[in-house]
Amino acid sequence: MKFKRYVIWSLLVISLAVFLAACNSEGEETSSTDGEENTDSGENAEEATEDEQVTIVYARGVDTTPATDAVIKAFEEAHPNIKVEQREMPADTGQSHDQYVTTFSSQSTEIDVFNADVIWPAEFAQANYALELDRFIEKDGIDMDSYFPGTVAAGKFNGRQWAMPQFTDAGVFYYRTDIVEEPPKTWDELISQAQELQGQEGTEFGYLMQAAQYEGLITNAIEYIASYGGQVVDESNNVVVDSPETVKAIEKMQEVVGSDFVPDNILNFMETETENAWIEGKAVFARNWPYLMSSSNDEERSSIVDNVEMAMLPAGDEGSASALGGWMTMINRYSEHPEEAWEFVKFISGPEGQKISAVEGARAPTIAELYEDPEVQDVSSLFANPEFREVLQSAVPRPVTPIYPEISDIMQIELSKALTGEQSAADAAANMQEKMEAAMAE
Length: 442
Ligand code: GLC
Fold this sequence. Notes:
Elements: E1 54-60, H1 67-78, E2 82-88, H2 93-105, E3 113-117, H3 121-126, H4 134-139, H5 149-154, E4 156-157, E5 160-161, E6 164-170, E7 172-176, H6 187-197, E8 205-208, H7 215-227, H8 244-257, H9 271-279, E9 283-288, H10 292-296, E10 308-311, E11 324-331, H11 338-349, H12 351-361, H13 374-377, H14 386-393, H15 404-419, H16 425-441
Parallel strand pairs: 1-2, 1-3, 8-9
Antiparallel strand pairs: 3-11, 4-5, 6-11, 7-9, 7-10
Helix pairs in contact: 1-12, 7-8, 7-15, 8-16, 15-16
The structure holds alpha-D-glucopyranose.
């Protein structure tokens, strides 16, 4: 199988130190014990003295793995004066997004640190929800070159860094090693193997994917589209989704979704439904993100421990393609504890935090060096495979724009109509083209 070679982005001008010293300190009392200047690190900056206990609130989506708890435990041990309280947001990234928008647009101080989907930083930076991180990065000499360039770029907007890469996601293919001899290399092979193998070892389904009308549908669709050589937007952000390649890809998706080897209610499937059915041993194949490997081998929850492997997604005419996902860490612009918030962001996005997430949660690190670590390589053969690092770095991004929520809504609606049979693949492609062009032109 061939993979696109990854083109290294030369990010030459990334570390212009932007010190916004002493702005915004109108009337605020800020006590600092370490002799550092007061900086504009939040509207109500309040720095803790060495001994003072500070509790920061960390909001993140549902984590079904032990990773988040383990990272927080390690952080609190290393920082006895900072306590991290978790706030759980919905598993559906779109719902989380809307809750954050409500919270941050009212300048609420209740959340200090939060996980952001890779598709949010541009929008959140533009809306002034986030604290800009360059001065912290500069102060602590964080080596941004140690991260995969694409993940750093996802946290940048207007030349500044608003989010730190925490882990990266790329769509991967799961198969049952107790049923499958050789995983399918193409979508057509998947279709025939899924038909043939479903029912073995007590399975009910051949394949599971995410076909509900929500953000995950876009990532699944992008994988089909790119695997047939189509694109949603081109390198210059022109909408190019209405192409024969895209039409063919949507038709293949319709074929899979309409088959009798997926659950009848596949159009309600998100990651959680996929995960639950998968770890109950109900399917031969599944598409999900790397974390499912951790759940698959969780002795307490899974009935298929040690019977699962990850592989590249099946290929279309053009090859195999994974959608780029992943999560960043950001600080609420109005956090009352920006310094402590940064300490946590630094830890969770740094080598120690990312290693814990990889080992405890099978989250793919964004720091290239961690893939050399034997404990990380032990998580799955894919993490040990240098080709997978290329897949991660050449994963296909969703359009990068502050109006991404609008773009996503258009795609969700048109793709869903194609999957429910309300419109043809060709109409879906044409409608996406027209509506996205109009939205981008505004
Ligand atoms: C995963 C990805 C994220 C994506 C979401 C879609 O959480 O990391 O980028 O938006 O799935 O459901």
